[in-house]
């Protein structure tokens, strides 16, 4: 029988927070800095005519701010699919997350394109100075969690991901969760119907796998490990990983980290 696309995600207590050596030796790894890295979430859709400029904007990030300053992710929602074009990257869970973030921001509506920084809506994202100030404000905060992230290719078009999370002393469990993300760059779609009919769209940082787990209180460090079987059409050379710790009760990101594509083509 063929293996499932996603094996079960395991949560393991660990004593230390260091980049996993076995994965790092065969792939690549990264560790989060002492300051808070900003998580930038763009909610978008190929069925939305106003979204392509936002998609292009996201592709320019992190730009001059540096990779250690922000983690940009594109989450495609499914609520525009009804108008004639089914977004191949849309997931219902991203629509649900956008609604949740909207509630945390005190908004009764969601829309595309919409940008959240650190789980808070940023309406002025398209203004360069406004966006830079928001990122700088996040970066000025000391990190309240630490993350080590690694990925490596396996035989048979599989990728192994591992994120280690260290929580602050005295932090209460239950409301905190760690999220492990696999994203893909350099995606191209020829849209044939809907508002963008006849347009060729390019996308970067498109979230392919979103793997959240509640973090346990009382453990010095915890590990999320996942083996992902890559469907046909996914390019290993364009894959990257990200991870972050969020407080779902208060709507805050304690720390985020990205690991840009580092896998050999055809791995």
Automatic annotation (TrEMBL):
Pfam families: DUF1223. PROSITE patterns: PROKAR_LIPOPROTEIN. Residues 1-24 form the signal peptide. Keywords: Signal. SUPFAM superfamilies: Thioredoxin-like. It comes from the Bacteria. InterPro entries: DUF1223, Thioredoxin-like_sf. The keyword Signal applies. This is DUF1223 domain-containing protein. It comes from Thauera sedimentorum.
